[in-house]
Design brief:
By secondary structure, the chain is of the alpha+beta class. Helices cover about 30% and strands about 30% of the residues.
Length: about 300
């Protein structure tokens, strides 16, 4: 009986052992952690998005570069055209004689608020004349048709703030002295300002009204290729008295021109020169109240301050 039990138990144990092995073999393995595969995919997606953004940025830069190149080429073509036109103009100028006058220029008209009209030809510039108003053969035509002859070779042509008088510099050129004149629209008379006190061999260069009474002008050496400006002077039209307001031209600091801004200030165009060459440029400002104090106290001012 014991032997039978032993023989029976052995196959049973074998079967149980085989079943256990089968169970271990057939049991599926646990799935891998999904996070282990998601990390590389996310990084790849971000890299692709970044690469796309860089490509879009590169495309935009290429587009802007093409626009810049197109504009540069257009500017280059325009410069070439201007250079060709300038060369042609210079060639034509060299091949013809310089006219002594401007008789072929048409007459221009400038209507004034007082009813008068300035009739003139555009002036021929003679060197660096620092004025925006050059005129020749000027005359004043009044509302009734009568006329007053003003003259030729005119610069600094300015109407007084109240519109009653005309200021002009006659005869000032690069190597020629000028004279300041005032024409009264009501009396229709013109007179030359005496400018007593103007230094010998000097000339009024640039001039304009400070107000209805005072005229500012630049006292400049009358000749010399190194002259670019001078000192500031004021003339009282009621007394013809002259007062010098600066004294720096001998030091190379010269006033070339100025602009009066009503009752506020005067802005100057100045240069500092040395041996005839410009070392520096400046635009000093002088308040109108300070100018009146200088005139009243008969003092000078250094615009280099």
């Amino acid at each position: 009986m014991k032997k039978i039990f032993t023989l029976t138990a052995l196959p049973l144990c074998a079967l149980l052992a085989f079943g256990a092995c089968a169970n271990r073999t057939d049991t599926p393995s646990e799935p891998a952690d999904p996070s282990s595969t998601q990390v590389p995919v996310q990084e790849l997606t971000e890299a692709r998005e970044h690469a796309g953004a860089l490509k879009a940025e590169l495309d935009e830069m290429n587009r802007l570069l093409q626009v810049e190149q197109t504009e540069k080429q257009a500017l280059s073509d325009r410069v070439d055209e201007l250079e060709d036109a300038l060369a042609a103009a210079l060639e034509g100028k060299e091949g013809s004689e310089t006219p002594d006058n401007n008789e072929d220029e048409p007459f221009l008209e400038r209507a004034l608020a007082n009813g008068a009209t300035l009739i003139y030809r555009a002036g021929v510039s003679d060197g660096p004349v620092y004025s925006e108003h050059l005129a020749d053969e000027m005359k004043v035509r009044y509302a009734d048709g009568t006329e007053t002859e003003i003259g030729t070779s005119l610069s600094s042509v300015e109407v007084s703030p109240d519109g009653t008088r005309l200021l002009y510099n006659q005869g000032f050129t690069w190597e020629g002295a000028g004279t300041l004149w005032v024409c009264d629209f009501e009396s229709r008379e013109k007179r030359q300002l005496s400018l007593d006190g103007l230094r010998d061999m000097y000339t009024p260069a640039f001039a304009d009204w400070l107000d209805d009474r005072y005229i500012l002008f630049v006292e400049q050496f009358a000749s010399g290729t190194t002259v670019m400006g001078g000192d500031l002077c004021v003339c009282d039209t009621e007394t013809d008295a002259l007062l010098r307001l600066t004294n720096t031209a001998t030091d190379g600091f010269q006033i070339r021109s100025f602009e009066v801004f009503g009752d506020d200030c005067v802005v100057f165009d100045c240069v500092q020169t040395s041996d005839g060459f410009i070392e520096d440029q400046a635009n000093p400002v002088l308040m109108t109240d300070e100018l009146y104090e200088l005139i009243r106290d008969e003092k000078t001012v250094d615009l280099r301050r």
